[in-house]
Write a structure and sequence with these properties.
alpha+beta
């Protein structure tokens, strides 16, 4: 399975390198009066990174909400008592 995953990553990296070499052109981004010239592959990597971060944050917040919705009584029964171990017996 690791070999297949490695092969997929190598193919994707090779395809991106070929794409970057053939499309190394400047793209002008206009923010009001400011213009920023960025190479196309860099722009695509930045866009992919922002999409990954947004998805990861959304997933983290969704899991945090799910954990917060679980009542504490479902996790720790009320009759659970801590076990006290005297020193030297542990």
């Amino acid at each position: 399975m690791n070999a297949a995953r490695l092969a997929i990553w190598v193919v994707l990296a090779t395809l991106f390198a070929v794409f970057a070499a053939t499309n190394w052109t400047g793209v002008t981004l206009a923010f009001g009066a400011t213009e920023l010239i960025v190479k196309l592959p860099v722009l695509l990597l930045a866009t992919a990174a922002l999409g990954y971060v947004a998805g990861a944050l959304r997933t983290r917040l969704r899991h945090r909400r799910r954990l917060a919705a679980i009542p504490v009584s479902a996790v720790l029964p009320s009759e659970a008592q801590p076990t006290i171990v005297p020193p030297g017996c542990g």
